[in-house]
């Protein structure tokens, strides 16, 4: 079989979640699906809000036969304009249609941004623990990933960050609320990070972009306000999607939004639009662009995630697991009770609980629990967490 050596390596490196998925299928065959507690995937089980179905019905009942054709690569003006209004109302910044491009999810958004801004060997900084695809997306566009570690509260180490920046640094990807840690970066952190970047921008006399990957922005707990990097850093590009807050990841719909403060905005947007075309996305799915445009303020019920977070935190704390309580998103990232997180997740698997080792997110010694799953999986998993920690005490 002739696939590239690089792809062979990537298959191995990127296999954590896939392996869990495959093991899950095996275990479910062996013990019955109801006896296996799969907390490995960030695939929300909740139904999208009713408003989405109302919009879909309207589109079906009043068919516009021209609605399925190619369109401008940036997307439908009507949708871009509504996303711009949504962003204007939910941030302190005034967005126009020309600042927005519709994409195939946040994954599509990240790829078109990186394609537009990277020259070969340009560097992209990412903070641990990170969404593993950042590494592969950066490579897709001939960039080099530079990894900066975080402390035990998952706050990136800004001294290391400062040292990592050089004249090849083109962008920094941040993700708050974070997958997998659930951390929301504070205003103080964002300000300090921006100061460091501003100094380097002056030194090199060019932009360093912050790419703010924010598909979980609206999933925050305890009344917390998620500070917005747009408020602190000029050269910010937002990548977002409706995958998580409308629970429609299979529909592949998201957007790129350029901070209105970026200089030479038009050239950057032209590059991103062209990238959407030549990466073969062409344009974001037409039907979904129409469907989401009137329900941008709708969301799944965040309370459902909160109930799950609270239950898991209470139960795991009683069992002696150590973790930071997630402030947002729908993941818990506890410390592995033994140093080897892969070994620990294998022990959990023997007790029919599927989670992902922290190594898959660039952070050894931890593991990720997804709590966007049904209640029986959450409740049923506790016995497996109990047996496994008792085994190693
Ligand atoms: C941090 C992060 N960024 C991006 C994505 C990709 O999201 P989308 O489905 O919108 O492409 C995910 C999906 O899990 C994610 O967790």
Walk me through the structure.
With about 400 residues, this protein is of the alpha/beta class. The protein folds into 2 domains: about 5-50 and about 300-390, Aspartate Aminotransferase, domain 1 (Alpha-Beta Complex); about 65-290, Aspartate Aminotransferase, domain 2, CATH 3.40.640. Helices cover about 40% and strands about 10% of the residues. The chain has 13 helices and 12 strands. The protein has helices spanning about 5-15, 15-30, 50-60, 75-90, 105-115, 135-140, 160-165, 185-205, 265-280, 285-290, 300-320, 340-350, 375-390; strands at about 35-40, 100-105, 125, 145-150, 170-175, 210-215, 235-240, 255-260, 330, 355, 355, 365-370. The strands form 3 sheets. The protein has a 7-stranded mixed beta sheet with strand order 2-8-7-6-5-3-4, with helices on both faces. A 3-stranded antiparallel beta sheet has the order 9-12-11. Helix 11 (about 300-320) runs parallel beside helix 13 (about 375-390) and helix 12 packs across helix 13 (about 375-390). The longest helix is centred in the middle third of the chain and has 18 residues, at about 185-205. It is globular, with a radius of gyration of 21 Å. The termini are far apart. It binds pyridoxal-5'-phosphate. Pyridoxal-5'-phosphate (PLP) binds near residues 107, 213, 241, 243 and 249.
